[in-house]
Amino acid sequence: MKLVVFGPFKRIGGLLLAGGIVDLNLVYTEYLKNRKLVRPEAQADLELPAKLEDFLEGGDSALEAAKKALSYAERKKGSLIIRPEGVKIWAPLPSLGTKIACAGSNFADHGAGAIAAQQGRRVMQADIDQIMQETEQGKHPQWGFWKMARCVIGPDEPVVYPSRTKHLDYEAELVAVIGKKGKNIPNNEKAMDYVFGYTGFNDWSIRDDVPSGSPADWVFF
C-alpha cells in the first residue's frame, strides 16, 4: 500500500495503481454508510483518522481499514477517486515534533569516500577494504545525527541554495518509519515489528566546508 499526504488540510490518502488518490477517511465513511452503520463519520474518524500522525498510532487496525477503503474506492470509482495533478502532495511528516534520526556511514565505500574527501584525495579500493576490515574489528562505532522536522519540504518544493556554498550536494536515503513506541528493542528480526513502512528523501549537505575531526564533532549540526 502506498500512502500520500495531500490537499490543503494535509489529509492522508491512498495511491491507486492507476495513479488516482483516495481520501481514505472519506471513502471509509462511505464504506461504513453502505453497511448501514450508525454514525459512520465518527466511526471512520476513530478507525481510520484523516491525519497521518493519528493514522500511525492506529497501527494494524488502521491499516486494515485503509485496505477496505481502497478496495471500496476501486469498485465504486467515480468521484471517490481524486486526480493527483489536481492536488498538492506534501512531505509525509506526521508533525513538526517528528524526530528524524539519520545513520552515519551506512556503507564501507561511503565511509571511505568521506575520509578521502576530508583528506582532499580520491577514494581507492584499498580504502574501502580497510574500512570493511576495521569495521569487522569493531574500530568504527555506530554514529548518526538528527534532522529538524521544520526543514523538511515536500515534492516539487524549491530548495533554498545557501549563498555561502559552491557545492550543495544531496544523497537519496531510504527512510524507515517507526510506527509504535518501544524500549530496549532487541537487535534482531523482532525489531522489524516496530517499522510501519518506508519512504524516501533527499538529504542535502554542504560539501565544500566539511567539519574536521570525528563525526561526534558535528553530530548536532
Q: What do these coordinates show?
A:
This protein is an alpha+beta fold and 221 residues long. It folds into two domains: 2-90, no CATH class; 100-104 and 142-218, no CATH class. Helix content is 30%, strand content 22%. It has helices at 24-34, 40-47, 52-76, 108-118, 125-136, and strands at 2-6, 11-15, 21-23, 81-82, 89-90, 100-103, 144-147, 168-178, 195-206. The strands form three sheets. Strands 4-3-2-1-5 form a five-stranded antiparallel sheet. Helix 1 crosses helix 2 (40-47).
In what order do the strands lie side by side in the largest sheet?
4-3-2-1-5
Helix content: 25-40%
Give Rg in angstroms.
22 Å
Number of H- or I-type helical stretches? 5
Residue fraction in strands: 15-25%
Indicate the overall shape: elongated
Query: SSE order in H/E notation?
Result: EEEHHHEEEHHEEE
End-to-end span in angstroms?
35 Å
Mean pLDDT: 86
Which stretches are low in confidence, meaning pLDDT under 50 for 5 or more residues running? 214-221
Count of separate structural domains: 2
Largest sheet: 5 strands, antiparallel
Write down how many β-strands occur, each being a DSSP E stretch of 2 or more residues.
9
